[in-house]
Design a protein that fits this description.
- The protein is an alpha+beta fold.
- The protein is built from twelve helices and ten strands.
- The strands form three sheets. A five-stranded antiparallel sheet has the order 7-3-10-9-8, sandwiched between helices.
- Helix 1 packs across helix 3, helix 5 runs antiparallel to helix 6 and helix 6 packs antiparallel against helix 12.
- The protein is elongated, with a radius of gyration of 26 Å.
């Protein structure tokens, strides 16, 4: 266990390095309120922190900088998260409440997170496997084609075109629409298959081909894994942070182009009440070893419907990023599922 004073020295070094991007020396810390010790004592504490792996010295005559281990301890011992101002909270509410549909909500959330944190923002769309059916619509768009529209309780909309084996009968289509909504409205998407298995048998033989075609397309729409969709924004913020990356930005940018990578980065965030922070080499890819990810789930207290987060250099304003990510997730959860 670190002594309280050494922990304060580490905290001061992290805060100064995040702010200035310059190695921190003992003289600059000696004047900070709260430490109240001499530069010599601070040097001894810094040497001990370096020996334990919490700090590193880039050059012999330079000050110290935090290591991944040092950032981890700093984050784990955070006593306060930087709160958003009243004006910032009102701006979040107004900005997100103005969205017209789910795509607009996600797009606005990505832009908002990137602006608040000045990092790269990642937002996952609500997963169908964690959602319920709100409404199903069937619309004849030609004599042999039907548009199937599935609306989730999270606002997610799936559309598919059904190719009918024969002419589409409007009366049969209307009856099928009513039957599907009676059977599925309010039910989890994971239960859709079991609830429509015997539905074709309830229809006359001449209608079963259309009913079967619609149900087949419905199952494809609700069981496919294409729901693992993410939106990305703020990559331009990395340009101003170029010196923070050990080699170059290219590996980071290449990794961010892969959707599966983005999902893996958010994978640790499974609870809307707990923010997850991955620092440096804790990230799943070596190409992202110079970055940190702050993420959290959003939805209700009982269920996470999806995740969001920000990615930036390890020299990140962790209290500010954690506060922004948590606040935006709370607003987004309220909009998506009314939590």
């Amino acid at each position: 266990m670190l002594e309280d004073r050494r922990l304060e020295v580490l905290r001061a070094i992290v805060e100064d390095f995040v702010r200035t991007q310059e190695p921190v020396g003992s003289k600059s810390l000696a004047g900070r309120p709260g430490l109240g010790v001499s530069p010599a004592t601070i040097r001894n504490d810094m040497a001990a922190l370096e020996e334990e792996g919490f700090l590193a010295q880039p050059h012999t005559s330079a000050g110290r900088v935090p290591t991944d281990k040092g950032y981890r301890l700093f984050v784990d011992r955070l006593t306060a998260i930087k709160p958003l101002s009243g004006a910032e909270r009102r701006a979040i509410s107004t900005f997100l409440d103005g969205a017209v549909d789910l795509d607009d909500v996600v797009s606005r959330t990505v832009r908002l997170l990137a602006q608040l944190t000045r990092q790269v923002a990642v937002v996952q769309y609500p997963s169908l496997t964690r959602s319920a059916v709100r409404h199903i619509e069937l619309v004849a768009i030609s004599t042999t084609r039907v548009l199937l529209v599935v609306i989730a309780d999270t606002g997610r909309v799936e559309q598919r075109v059904v190719e009918s084996p024969g002419p589409v009968d409007e009366t049969t289509l209307a009856g099928l629409r009513i039957g599907l909504n009676q059977a599925l409205a309010g039910q989890p998407f994971t239960d859709v298959g079991s609830r429509v298995t015997d539905m074709p048998e309830r229809y006359p033989w001449e209608d079963r081909a259309l009913v079967t075609a619609v149900l087949s397309t419905l199952l494809e729409a609700t069981m496919e894994r294409h729901e693992e969709r993410v939106a990305l924004g703020g990559t331009a913020n990395l340009a101003r942070l170029g010196p923070d990356f050990a080699s170059s930005l290219r590996p980071v940018l290449e990794a961010l182009e892969e959707q599966v990578v983005l999902l893996r980065l958010l994978g640790e965030a499974t609870d809307p009440r707990r923010v997850t922070v991955l620092i440096g080499h804790e990230n799943p890819l070596e190409s992202l070893a110079s970055t940190s990810v702050v993420s959290v789930g959003y939805g209700t207290a009982e269920q996470t419907v999806a995740k969001l987060g920000v990615l930036g250099p390890t020299r990140m304003d962790y209290p500010g990023s954690i506060g922004a990510v948590r606040a935006v997730a709370q607003y987004l959860g309220h909009i998506i599922v009314g939590s």
